[in-house]
């Protein structure tokens, strides 16, 4: 039996200016009207959490999450522009009922 670490190593921390660069990217995107307020809301919550926990992890998580969203946006756009019709699908809540 080999010894395994108990914790998974955390990903490297984003660069110090990553949040500012990310915000500039969001402002330049066509979705800026929706994305900038959402990013700012997530950032404010992470900043509050960071102050209470004395950890930068919440801020790093926000940056990583939004970097992934921006990276996935072209694929989502391509899917939406491909003309796929999803009007025939049934909402899972309609099938399973309320899951409260």
Short structural summary:
With 100 residues, the chain is mainly alpha-helical. The chain has helices at residues 18-28, 32-53, 57-81, 92-96. It has 4 helices and no strands.
Beta-strand segment tally: 0
The main sheet comes to: none
pLDDT averaged over residues: 85
Distance between the termini: 43 Å
- Measured as a percent range, the helix fraction is 55-70%
Radius of gyration: 19 Å
Point out poorly predicted stretches: none
Question: Can you write the helix and strand succession as a string?
Answer: HHHH
Number of continuous helical runs: 4
SS-derived structural category: mainly alpha
**Strand portion:** under 5%
Described by the principal axes of the CA atoms, the overall outline is: extended
Question: How is this structure best described in words?
Answer:
This protein is mainly alpha-helical and 100 residues long. It contains four helices and no strands. The chain has a domain at 53-81. 63% of the residues lie in helices and 0% in strands. Helix 1 (18-28) runs parallel beside helix 3 (57-81) and helix 2 (32-53) packs antiparallel against helix 3. The mean pLDDT is 85.
């Amino acid at each position: 039996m080999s010894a395994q670490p108990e914790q998974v190593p955390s990903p490297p921390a984003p660069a110090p200016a990553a949040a500012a660069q990310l915000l500039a990217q969001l402002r330049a995107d066509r979705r800026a009207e929706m994305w900038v307020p959402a990013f700012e809301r997530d950032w404010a919550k992470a900043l509050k959490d960071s102050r209470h926990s004395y950890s930068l992890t919440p801020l790093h998580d926000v940056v990583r999450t939004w970097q992934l969203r921006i990276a996935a946006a072209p694929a989502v756009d391509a899917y939406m522009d491909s003309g796929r019709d999803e009007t025939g699908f049934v909402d899972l809540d309609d099938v399973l009922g309320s899951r409260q």
